[in-house]
Design brief:
70 residues, Structural Genomics Hypothetical 15.5 Kd Protein In mrcA-pckA Intergenic Region, Chain A, 2 helices, 23% helix
Length: 70
């Protein structure tokens, strides 16, 4: 899988916001649902915390697509 780079200006971005910001999901509500359904991987592991803080170098995968925080 190839990862696109998601550049953030802050120290971190929350997982649900990152999914929306990256356009992997259209809304925050859908981000919440896919996270709670266990469909999102962070650094290769299922993550059920929608408020998980992602920092530079973290990799997120969902639905065959992914991004890495830059």
């Amino acid at each position: 899988m190839s990862f696109i780079e998601l550049e953030i200006k802050e120290d971190f971005i929350k997982l649900d916001s990152a999914l929306k910001f990256s356009s992997l999901v259209p809304t925050g509500g859908i981000a919440k649902m896919v996270i709670l359904d266990g469909l999102v991987l962070v650094n290769g592991e299922v993550c059920l915390m929608r408020g998980k803080k992602l920092r530079s170098g973290d990799k997120v995968e969902f639905d065959g697509k992914g991004f890495i925080i830059k």
